[in-house]
Amino acid sequence: VRKTPQSCIKCAKCVGVCPMGLEPYLMYGFARRLRYEELEAAHVTDCIECGCCSYTCPAYLPLLDYIRLGKSEVAKILRARKAR
Predict the structure, then answer these.
(1) How do residues 39-80 score in pLDDT, each as one tens digit?
(2) What DSSP state is assigned to residue 20?
(3) Which residues are CB-contacts of 15 (< 8 A; sequence separation ≥ 6)?
(4) What's the maximum distance between 2 C-alpha atoms anywhere in the chain?
(5) Going by C-beta distance under 8 Å and a sequence separation of 6 or more, which residues neighbour residue 60?
(6) pTM (predicted TM-score)
(7) Could you point out which of 9, 26, 35, 69 has its C-alpha 20 to 30 Å from the C-alpha of 41?
């Protein structure tokens, strides 16, 4: 059972545990706001979806859920770009 998400307190614990050196809180925000260009620029495709960010988040944000959704949308954009 998941706990109720709170507001991000910008503690950067998710950044500290990311094995890929990404900024999960930032990617979460871009994905929530459907800002896929910024999400691509934040290197969302480098995410290995390990879940460390969600596990360590003291605000219980569903970081990985949104990162996966955003990553999927960015992948569609990249495929469309290649098809041109």
Answers:
(1) 999 999 999 999 999 999 999 999 999 999 999 999 999 999
(2) T
(3) 22, 23, 24, 25
(4) 44
(5) 2, 3, 4, 5, 6
(6) 0.92
(7) 9
